Amino acid sequence: MYCIKCGQQLPEEALFCPVCGTPVATINNRTIIDGPIKTEIFNWGILDDNSVAINQTNSWLKKHKIIVESISTQARYGSFSKTSILNHLEIKYRESKDGFIHEMKYFAETKLFGNNFSSLDKKYEDWVAKNPEVSVVAKTRNGHQGVNTPSSMTIFCLYIPQA
């Protein structure tokens, strides 16, 4: 276990870092400061779609108990699907024996005219409200504003299925 502020290795029973005094944070009695930050990078090609990206990501996530520090996404416009498609995902995380199994989900919408995606936000908010047992740890939005093509927006969220 390592201090998130100064990187000092901590004794298992530590409540505070002995060097800088930073408290060791916990969630549901699970230590969330454990190990160095690592990075997992996923890339997908032009023939892949969001379901391929989400399935591959979830396959990796199910094999790792982690604490997520951050995610970043890049998407491209899918000319066949007319929506924003994930082509790059970077997950910064810490491995932890007390970490969580995560899952990823997406919500997508395309507009022929305009770029108001409040109905997409409503879909996401409705899903969160209908699933109070999940704990969303990261959410990103990727979109494309069309000139001669439709506009699209996709929300990607990383969550803990049962908090």
Architecture overview:
By secondary structure, the protein is α+β, with helices and mostly antiparallel strands. It folds into two domains: 33 residues; 127 residues, no CATH class. The chain contains two helices and eight strands, in the order E-E-E-H-E-E-E-H-E-E. Strands 3-5-4 form a three-stranded antiparallel β-sheet, with helices on one face. The chain has a three-stranded antiparallel β-sheet with strand order 6-8-7, sandwiched between helices. Strand 1 and strand 2 form a beta hairpin.
Query: What is the straight-line distance between the termini?
Result: 22 Å
Q: Output the structural class.
A: alpha+beta
What's the alpha carbon Rg, rounded to whole Å?
Answer: 18 Å
Major sheet summary line: 3 strands, antiparallel
Helix content: 10-25%
The number of E-state strands comes to 8
Number of helices: 2
The backbone outline, from C-alpha atoms, is elongated
* SSE ordering: EEEHEEEHEE
Number of domains: 2
> Which strand-content bin applies to the residues?
35-45%
Report the uncertain regions. none
Strand order of the largest sheet: 3-5-4
Give the overall pLDDT as a whole number: 84
